[in-house]
Amino acid sequence: MKQLHKQSSVNHRRDEEIPSNQTPPYSPKSLKQPRSLPRSINYLFKEQRLLFILVGILIGSTFFILQPTLSRLGPTEVRSSIPRSFSTDTNTTTTTATISHTQDASGSYSADSNKPFHGKVGRVPVGIGRRRMRIVVTGGAGFVGSHLVDKLIGRGDEVIVIDNFFTGRKENVVHLFGNPRFELIRHDVVEPILLEVDQIYHLACPASPVHYKYNPVKTIKTNVMGTLNMLGLAKRVGARFLLTSTSEVYGDPLQHPQKETYWGNVNPIGERSCYDEGKRTAETLTMDYHRGAGVEVRIARIFNTYGPRMCLDDGRVVSNFVAQAIRKQPMTVYGDGKQTRSFQYVSDLVDGLVALMEGEHVGPFNLGNPGEFTMLELAEVVKETIDPSATIEYKPNTADDPHMRKPDISKAKELLNWEPKISLREGLPLMVSDFRNRILNEDEGKGA
What compartments host this protein (predicted)? Predict the structure, then answer.
């Protein structure tokens, strides 16, 4: 007890020795202020958090107020500020779905749901209320391509034409210059190109014997490398791809008429093989991208087509006969003239291509007119239309010239609801009128 009493006395004296005005030692911890407001309200006022919250509410309200106005804008207006060469599509919704590819009895592939597929959703059928598409047409300055471009522009789409002008002509599309929905790019499809598009019509390739035999290596490069580049573009941007193949894949057919399931009778090393085998390879690549990468594809096998804007001297029989008859030259028939062909007017073909692109079937589809003519019968129709006094000159037949060519279009009728409407006697005068004007201008240019 004595020790405890002494200790308390010592402590009491120490307290008395400390001056009353001496401040306590410094402590890094700040003294807690008494809370006058709840913690949640203090949190809002610190570091201007309330200001940022109000700004965010204002921005959100503005967006929701303006959203109905923005939704009424078409994709062209929204994307007008995006560079045309390459940009990211911020207005097209992409999705990952699954599809499987089944082949029906007619050889057409259709989509199901078992395999990875990357593509655009919400496609609207052609008609009232369809959204404006941005479409690439390779070879769009050529004969068929320029007519296709006219149809696409006419229905309100944006069209980008890619052409190297080997067989295409600026005159075929000059009437579209100045149209804000038309763009022309001079480019060779054997080199890659980056564009933002919804659909790709791949028509680029020399199609007449005169042109594709002139540079066979270039022809097969266009078919292989050009198709690879366009399929790669379709894969990157999720575009639907349409390949324009040819009836030449059937070679010199042993089946008549030719169905899409017929595999052909071909010469892989002949003079025409650069074109025939090139198109067969292009079809293979197209189906490989479809099955392996989920690219939406369509394949058209085009039979003989005629109409305005054909090259005057491209070696194809209709243009040869018409140009020779107008120039008062003998019409050249190769061989005995008993070879048969079917001829469709270009507008019928364009309707078929659009129906195929907008449909839900991969193909391949024969697009041609089943009306069949021998070369001598065709020459007689040309004589009736242009000059009854025109004469015929016979020459030796060319190598690998097919003896018969006639499409079976029953599958296109059934699945695409398409068939040609214009007969040869109806369409030929329209072509003759165009050829007369061009040959007249050509002669005037030469001073004839």
Answer: Golgi apparatus, Golgi stack membrane
